């Protein structure tokens, strides 16, 4: 019997896709990577996943795990050899249980993030992971990439929101680790090893995640700013004045919002006058556990101080939930507007906030000197020291010319990140996009240990080969 026949026997013929029906699984969200595959398997249970992995191990078939396929580093796209099996987790999409006394929820890997948030709301709880792709990304993909998003400042990234994992190992065994414990010091932290491993060590099939109280009130404001230094100072004021109630602090360059307004004419800039064309904007969010009055008082006090100190040109505080949503919608539309303008070169970097403005000025200057006419498209989660320091073709380059010079642009920006003691991947991961860059920027001992871990957990090398680790 052939591999495909055996696969069909285990999970049902209709859940093994081949030919044209594989199309949507073979290209990444950005359209930067396309691959080919032997087939796409869509198992529905952990046991089926384990059977598929055992079969792949027996036939030495490489496995590319895939969730919502919204990753930005090509991690879920197979190569062009047509030898790999894409293993889609989309049918593992049950909320298995909610424990409101322990404030935990057990969810299967293929649950769409938005559905997980809604399930928490249905029990008057908050699951705070939030990102612009939340309508299509899955919790398994979020954990495999250790996703960040807009609430990291207060709640941490996907790793911080997880207590336990169920994983199918590269040998097809099931690791039962769904404990909902906040304390468990019984040895090595395997959960944290699988989180962020981008499918190269095993397949996450379910997770026990943390729930939080829903905030009683939230306030959102958009501030127009002259400089990035001002943004950093406003962040310091907001941290000081709002402490743990500050749940989001996003930085947006003026041209990003202009691009959104151009692509989506139904969206509106909430300012009039010079603030409509400010160089920078900051989107702030406060979540309060007392009352709306309490929230507004604290929020207005901090924004008032920033205005008094001349750090802010103009400020708009949302009066209603609809206005707050509209402000967030502006921010969340940036990646889509960016995509509509064509392919860009993305740098998802983290830099200590204390040197962020210096990094931006020096890198902008070096880029313009080396590639006059390129356009910076900079936005991100300033509160976490994470910028999406992206580069678009601007007026001087065609898309092809830009992509041809990708390696030079990467080197310039990432060398600068390295000089400022930053990281070349803050939240999107490594995938195929950045794996060959690791030897230049990552500590060599860390890399050696990573390779040894990979050998120990996946000796046949079938788990997502060609991702994360350099050749
Ligand atoms: P996929 O793209 O399917 O897979 C991503 C990686 O995880 C691949 O390596 C894949 O092999 C592996 N994988 C997937 N599922 C599993 C599993 N169950 N077990 C093991 N490995 C698995 N990311 C952020 O961190 N913050 C943001 O703010 C953010 N904003 C975004 C905005 C937009 C518009 C888009 C398109 C993407 C954004 N992303 C962001 C990136 C992306 O959404 C996240 O990386 C997300 O966590 C990926 O989830 P997914 O289910 O789509 O995973």
Automatic annotation (TrEMBL):
Keyword list, A-Z: FAD, Flavoprotein
Any single Pfam family the record assigns to this protein: FAD_binding_4
InterPro entries assigned: FAD-bd_oxidored_4_C, FAD-bd_PCMH, FAD-bd_PCMH-like_sf, FAD-bd_PCMH_sub1, FAD-bd_PCMH_sub2, FAD-linked_Oxase-like_C, FAD-oxidored/transferase_4, Oxid_FAD_bind_N
Domain FAD-binding PCMH-type positions: 33-214
Listed PANTHER family: BLL6224 PROTEIN, D-2-HYDROXYGLUTARATE DEHYDROGENASE, MITOCHONDRIAL
Family the UniProt entry places it in: Belongs to the FAD-binding oxidoreductase/transferase type 4 family.
Name recorded for this polypeptide: FAD-binding oxidoreductase
């Amino acid at each position: 019997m052939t591999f495909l026949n055996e696969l069909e026997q285990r999970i049902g013929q209709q859940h093994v896709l081949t030919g044209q029906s594989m199309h949507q699984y073979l290209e990444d969200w950005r359209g930067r990577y396309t691959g080919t595959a032997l087939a796409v398997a869509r198992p529905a249970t952990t046991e089926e996943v384990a059977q598929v992995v055992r079969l792949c191990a027996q036939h030495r078939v490489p496995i590319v795990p895939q969730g919502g396929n919204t990753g930005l580093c090509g991690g879920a796209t197979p190569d062009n050899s047509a030898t790999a099996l894409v293993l889609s987790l989309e049918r593992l999409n049950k909320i298995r249980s909610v424990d409101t006394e322990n404030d935990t929820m057990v969810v299967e890997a293929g649950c769409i993030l938005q559905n997980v948030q809604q399930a928490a709301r249905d029990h008057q709880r908050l699951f705070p992971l939030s990102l612009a792709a939340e309508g299509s990304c899955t919790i398994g993909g979020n954990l495999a990439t250790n996703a960040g998003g807009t609430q990291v400042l207060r709640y941490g990234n996907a790793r911080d929101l997880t207590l336990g994992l169920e994983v199918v190992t590269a040998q097809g065994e099931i690791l039962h680790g769904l404990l909902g414990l906040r304390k468990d010091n019984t040895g090595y932290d395997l959960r944290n090893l699988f989180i962020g491993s981008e499918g190269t060590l095993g397949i996450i099939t379910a997770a026990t995640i943390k729930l939080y109280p829903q905030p009683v009130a939230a306030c959102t404001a958009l501030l127009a700013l002259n400089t990035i230094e001002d943004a950093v100072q406003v962040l310091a004021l907001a941290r000081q004045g709002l402490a743990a109630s500050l749940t989001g602090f996003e930085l947006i360059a003026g041209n990003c919002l202009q691009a959104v307004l151009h692509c989506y004419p139904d969206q509106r800039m909430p300012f009039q006058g010079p603030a409509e064309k400010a160089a920078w904007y900051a989107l702030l969010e406060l979540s309060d556990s007392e009352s709306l009055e309490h929230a507004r008082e604290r929020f207005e006090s901090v924004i008032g101080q920033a205005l008094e100190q001349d750090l802010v040109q103009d400020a708009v505080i949302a009066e209603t939930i609809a206005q707050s949503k509209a402000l967030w919608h502006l921010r969340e539309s940036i990646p889509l507007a960016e995509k509509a303008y064509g392919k860009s070169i993305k740098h998802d970097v983290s830099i200590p906030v204390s040197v962020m403005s210096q990094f931006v000025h020096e890198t902008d200057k070096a880029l313009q000197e080396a590639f006059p006419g390129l356009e910076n498209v900079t936005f991100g989660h300033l509160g976490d020291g994470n910028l999406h320091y992206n580069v678009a073709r601007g007026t001087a380059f065609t898309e092809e010319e830009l992509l041809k010079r990708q390696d030079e642009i990467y080197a310039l920006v990432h060398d600068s990140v390295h000089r400022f003691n930053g990281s070349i991947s803050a939240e999107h991961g490594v995938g195929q996009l950045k794996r060959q860059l690791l030897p230049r920027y990552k500590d060599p001992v860390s890399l050696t240990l990573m390779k040894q871990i990979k050998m120990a957990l996946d000796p046949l090398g079938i788990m997502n080969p060609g991702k994360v680790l350099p050749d």
